[in-house]
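Now for a sample.
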Amino acid sequence: MILDFSKNNGLIPTIIQDSQTQQVLMLGYMNEEALEKTQQENIVTFFSRSKNRLWTKGETSGNFLKVVSIKEDCDQDALLIKVIPNGPTCHNGTTSCFANEPQISFLNELEKVIEERMSNPSSESYVASLFQKGINKIAQKVGEEAVELVIESKDNNPDLFLNEAADLLFHYLLLLKAKGYGLADVETILKSRMKNG
């Protein structure tokens, strides 16, 4: 990556975007040292113009930004960093500095809930209990829900059909997470197929 730090007094504007929701979270500035530290630690560090020093986002709040990817623009004088945020990004306590409310899609939110219940199981959680039964049981549930959806598709009851579709989608998300993947991974494959044909 070759960047032009000669503009803006050695600072590069850096857009931070949530890698899962694609929501723009904030804008900061990096000098060469901040970029180097970010690349080494995989946690976003900026150059603070007000403090006149390096500043790791989350150093006081604990709301760090874990780096997923770093891309430069066509003029090599701006960056787009996709991240996994650990909590709200804005100092006002909101997800993004550009909006008062989170702009997360429901399916992404559901993925996060599933992940949370798998990581912190409780006896009342259906997700946790199914996850504890193992991958075979989860895969079996996906198969069962798929068959039930096919059966309902042959009838003319929209309510039953949509409920079975919701059950299948939920268990599919659970299976993806149990295998260590998410919707973004499937989207990548679908996008590549669109380009190829």
